[in-house]
Amino acid sequence: MADTDGIDVLVHEVGPRDGLQATQVLMPTDAKLEWITALRDSGLQKIQVGSFVPPKLLPQMADSADVTKSAKELGGFKVSVLVPNLKGAELALAAGADELNFVMSASEEHNLKNVRKTHEQSIEDFTRIIELKRSNDDFRDVTISGGLSTCFGCTIAGPIAEEIVFELTRAYVEAGADRIGIADTVGYGNPVQVKRIFSEVLDIADGINVGAHFHDTRGLGLANAFAAFEVGVRELDGCLGGLGGCPYAPGATGNVVTEDLVFMLESMGLQTGINLDRLMEARAVMEKHLGGEPTHGAYAKAGAPKGFPSAGLAA
Ligand SMILES: [Zn+2]
After folding, report:
1. How many Å lie between the centroid of ligand 1 and the Cα of residue 238?
2. pLDDT for residue 222
3. Is the pLDDT of residue 1 over 70?
4. d(CA 95, CA 68)
5. Spans of all domains in the chain
6. Residue 314 CA to ligand 1 centre (angstroms)
7. Which of 60, 67, 136, 273 has its CA 20 to 30 A from that of 200?
8. Residues within 5 Å of ion ligand 1 by Cβ?
9. Distance between the two ends of the chain, CA-based, in angstroms?
10. How many angstroms separate the CA atoms of 44 and 37, rounded?
11. d(CA 284, CA 276)
């Protein structure tokens, strides 16, 4: 298992899941594993490797069980996956995932469209997943994360009442969540809103780990990540090369760019455990398999400032 001692901020790479599912590329399993290996070698300690959704809906994720098993064999990092329901959780646990990120939309309209469930039904499903975990000692160390997408706005419902986000966070905590994940799925959030929402969510979570997931759709990804850090969030999601564009905004940038996020944190003197040179090598491995899919990122274009120390792991 990854050693998170000495880390100030845990960067959670979600490229092989959130990034790939937004592309048309069907990356072969071997290529995914080559990429995931390079990500691990850069020092990343948690990588989201797939999504246990029906293969018909997301053919890019059809090999998630195989990728999860092989990622576990690679070792050296926490293997995180996304699960939309109990069925997905059963498959993910059987494959040996270390962290299950259950997903529910704060927007009930979006949740009905995405997983065909009301909030109440999704929370019932989540409760069953917690029961499943607790029923088997083999799953004792698995993290079950209650994820909330569209917390800062929704392409279907528009603005989302903050009280809904807080209510659903409370429901997750009461159900026994090990972690809470709050996401700005479509890049609607701003730093002031981020500070307000995360301050309250951290209060409700009361010591349970809270992760933040931002998209850079309108250029505020890094500002939002910093705002979340400032109010106490210590786990931030990113996608190598900023993969994960929005299907409703063709050509728009995707998730917060991991390289830029790591550069920001390390340049502020925070330890991420990640070596930026090796992260750039992982980016090259990813690009080799992306079939010309556009990638983003300022650090990749400009490189390190003169005198900037190579961060993280020793070479
Ligand atoms: Zn996302």
Report:
1. 9
2. 98
3. no
4. 6
5. 10-314
6. 31
7. 273
8. 18
9. 20
10. 10
11. 12
pLDDT for the residue numbered 116: 94
246 flagged as catalytic = yes
* Cα–ligand 1 centroid distance for 136 (angstroms): 30
| pLDDT tens-digit map of 158-207 | 999 999 999 999 999 999 999 999 999 999 999 999 999 999 999 999 99
Cα of 135 to ligand 1 centre, how many Å? 31
How far does residue 216's CA lie from ligand 1's centre (Å)?
Answer: 10
Q: What is the DSSP code string of 196-253?
A: HHHHHHHHHHTTSEEEEEEB-TTS-HHHHHHHHHHTT--EEEEBGGG----TTSTT--
Q: CA 20, CA 17: separation in Å to the nearest integer?
A: 5
How many CB atoms sit inside 10 A of residue 270's CB?
15
Q: Which of 5-9, 142-146, 214-218 has the lowest mean pLDDT?
A: 5-9
CA gap 207, 57 in Å, rounded: 36
Confidence of residue 309 (pLDDT cuts 50, 70, 90): confident
* Sign of the CA dihedral with 144 first, then 80, 164, and 200 last: positive
Dump pLDDT digits (tens) for 45-64.
999 999 999 999 999 999 99
Name the percent of the chain lying above pLDDT 70.
96
Output the CA 154–ligand 1 centroid distance in Å.
12
For helices 258-267 and 276-288, what crossing angle results, to 10°?
180
Ligand 1 centroid vs 309 CA: distance in angstroms?
30
Identity of the amino acid at 90: E
CA separation, residue 170 to residues 20, 87, 174, 183, 184 (Å): 31, 24, 6, 16, 18
Class of domain 10-314: alpha beta
